[in-house]
Amino acid sequence: MTITKGVDLEIVEYLYSAEKERREVVKVTDRYPELSFSDAYSIQDKLIQRREQDGSRKIGLKLGLTSRAKQQMMGVHEAIYGYLTDDMLALEWEHLDFTQFIHPKAEPEIAFFIDKDLEGTNVTAEDVLEVTKFVAPAIEIIDSRYLNFKFTLADVIADNCSSSKFLIGSKWMSPRDLDLGQLGMVMSKNGQVVQTGSSAAVLGHPATSVAWAVNKLGEVGKGIQKGDVILSGAVSEAIAFEPNDNVLVHFAELGSVSFTCKSST
Ligand code: 0L1
Ligand code: MG
């Protein structure tokens, strides 16, 4: 740790209150430039514990920076992970309240439903597919707590990788029944195509991305559990949206998932 115990809890409160009060804040490394990745993951853990104190339940994992393009943009060579909690799950058939966000963006993802615990440091994509009961189309809504969505890698890890909400489509399939590594994707906003991509953009194959996270967790004696939902990483760039926008993501074979945003519920 390069920061002291009191400071980590101070940062947790700083980020948690920014989220609850829907405020952009100055990034943590402006004040603590020495913040290391391991400090940042430790702060992330404590941020999740703080949410749990308030009644949230950890239900899975999400991967970020899984495309080579985004890694190059950030000048890094690795993906990152954060946690999903039950209160992040939004439902397709309910309008999303825009006032709960700061400056949200939506990105297309593939969700994995895990059926068996998996832990280790040599886990492969095949191992991940073995323990995956279903995959489904998903949208992640990211909403960095930092000013203008600008941060360093340590900042974004501490901020639970910009996690905010996610939606899962209704078509769930066994990963063995489709070509998961090469699924075409089209994302539209208000009927206009805004992004296209392929599941191959996620570290070559979304299961490779999940395996990376399991191995990374394995380094600190953790793993993934039966019942976890995992968002394997964005298939294209995230797009900003506003009240009254409708965002739809369609994956070949896997089908669609969408949401409409209202200014209030
Ligand atoms: O889920 C994501 O890909 C977000 C990772 C963090 C970077 C960002 O907020 O763009
Ligand atoms: Mg994401």
Brief sketch in words of this structure:
InterPro entries: Fumarylacetoacetase-like_C, Fumarylacetoacetase_C_sf, Hydratase-Decarb/MhpD_sf. Keywords: Lyase. About 25% of the residues lie in helices and about 30% in strands.
Our estimate of the beta-strand percent is 25-35%
Largest sheet: 7 strands, mixed
Task: Give the tally of structural domains.
Answer: 1
Structural class by SSE content:
alpha+beta
* Helix content bin: 25-40%
Low-confidence stretches: none
How many helical elements? 7
Mean pLDDT: 96
CATH level 1 class label: Alpha Beta
The helix/strand order is: HHHEHEEEEHEHEEEHEEEEE
CATH architecture: Alpha-Beta Complex
**If you consult CATH, what is the topology?**
Fumarylacetoacetate hydrolase, domain 2
Q: Report the bound ligands by name, code or SMILES.
A: hexanedioic acid, magnesium ion
Task: Give the total of beta strands.
Answer: 14
Question: What general outline do the C-alpha atoms trace?
Answer: globular
Report the CATH superfamily. Fumarylacetoacetase-like, C-terminal domain
N-end to C-end Cα span: 43 Å
Rg over CA atoms, rounded to whole Å, is 17 Å
